[in-house]
Every structure is written in structure tokens, then in C-alpha cells.
Amino acid sequence: MIKAIALFPDVTANVAYDVLHDSAYRTKWDKYMIKQENIGIINPNNDVCYYSLNSVSPIRPRDFVMQRSWLETDKDRLICSHSVCHEDYPPVKGCIRATVLLSGYLIKEKDQGCEVIYISHSDPKGKLPTWLVNRVTKVVAPKVIKKLHKACLGYPEWKEKHHPTWKPWSIPEQQMDLARVDLIKCQPKDYEQEIIDESNLSAMSISTKDDEDEDSIKN
């Protein structure tokens, strides 16, 4: 489980919330995102999505099917997710199907900017060495927050050029034409997966990757 708390003095709660929701913008700032697909909505505050994420070689890409829930109050914004199954989205060849027990963002409006609280508890599956799991636990959360902050700073300008009024996560009326999830297809299922040894990565190569400069936001 990883947790991070950060203050974004130059970002409003609404902007941080929109960045985390806007799938079209995600590929502009998250270099590890391979694919993100909205399977459908359950109700105005819940949907089911498919994600696949790249990683540092030789760690295999992971993929997930997750139910995402969100809520807006006067001063707080909440997004939380956990893994589910969908019969139309089995594990993809070349990816290891990981399990997210809980992933969440709590965004709290402040007098100046916002506070972002991030937590993630997941099982990456596969066969990863203990030292790597420990290192990722220490490194990932701060890097996620740093990348999110940079993405938030660039979002208002980007959004002005890319469907500025399209925000179905905040405007339920825009969900009318979105696909609905067939919950019958979301029954729990255990997938048989090959156990792949990913222990060939050295601490030096992880350190090198971690020290690379962050990518700029793509237009």
C-alpha cells in the first residue's frame, strides 16, 4: 500500500478533479499509459473501465478492469477504484492482469489551491523480487503526485482547445449517449495466467529510470 499527500497551491480542486477524470488528456501526460477504454457507466457516479500500463523493462505491462466511483461535495472531490471482472475484457496477451484492491484520490479545496491525498493498494501479480516491490512502494507515490501537479498546470490551456464543455463526470446529462454496463458480464472470475519471472531487473537500472527527466505535456 502506498500513500501520498501534497498541497497544490497553484491548482484548484476542480482542475485536479477534471485532470484525473479526463481520459483524453491522460495520454498527454502519463507516458506509461498504453490503453484506456471506458466499458460503460453503471449510474451517474460509477463506471467500468479497462486500463493497460507499461513499465520499466523487463517488467511486463499490467492490465486492469476497474469499477470507478466518484463524488463531488462543496469542498471535496473523491475518486476511488477497485478491480472487477468483465467477460469481454479478459487478460490481454503480453500483459499480466493485476488486482487493485483500492485506489483513491481525495481532493480538498483550500483557501489557496487544493490538497491531494492519494492512496493505492494493489497486487501486481507475476513474480517480482521483494527489493523491487519495496523500491516501487517508496518511489511511485511521489512520482505520481509530481506528474499530476505538472499535468494540472497544463490542463486549462489544453482543455480550451479540446471539447472544453465535455465533462460527463460532472454533467450527468452528457452521459445519456454513453454505453451502459451489463452487470451480468461482471461476475467474479479467476483467470489462469502464466507465472512470469521478472527478477532480471537490477537496482541500478531502476535507479537510472527513476532519475530520468519528466516528459513534457504533449499538445
TrEMBL record:
<dbReference type="GO" id="GO:0016020">
    <property type="term" value="C:membrane"/>
</dbReference>
<keyword id="KW-0966">Cell projection</keyword>
<keyword id="KW-0597">Phosphoprotein</keyword>
<dbReference type="Pfam" id="PF01852">
    <property type="entry name" value="START"/>
</dbReference>
<dbReference type="GO" id="GO:0031514">
    <property type="term" value="C:motile cilium"/>
</dbReference>
<protein>
    <recommendedName>
        <fullName>START domain-containing protein 10</fullName>
    </recommendedName>
</protein>
<dbReference type="InterPro" id="IPR023393">
    <property type="entry name" value="START-like_dom_sf"/>
</dbReference>
<dbReference type="GO" id="GO:0006869">
    <property type="term" value="P:lipid transport"/>
</dbReference>
<keyword id="KW-0969">Cilium</keyword>
<dbReference type="GO" id="GO:0005829">
    <property type="term" value="C:cytosol"/>
</dbReference>
<keyword id="KW-0963">Cytoplasm</keyword>
<keyword id="KW-0282">Flagellum</keyword>
<feature type="domain" description="START">
    <location>
        <begin position="1"/>
        <end position="157"/>
    </location>
</feature>
<keyword id="KW-0446">Lipid-binding</keyword>
<keyword id="KW-0007">Acetylation</keyword>
<keyword id="KW-0813">Transport</keyword>
<dbReference type="InterPro" id="IPR051213">
    <property type="entry name" value="START_lipid_transfer"/>
</dbReference>
<keyword id="KW-0472">Membrane</keyword>
<dbReference type="GO" id="GO:0008289">
    <property type="term" value="F:lipid binding"/>
</dbReference>
<keyword id="KW-0445">Lipid transport</keyword>
<dbReference type="InterPro" id="IPR002913">
    <property type="entry name" value="START_lipid-bd_dom"/>
</dbReference>
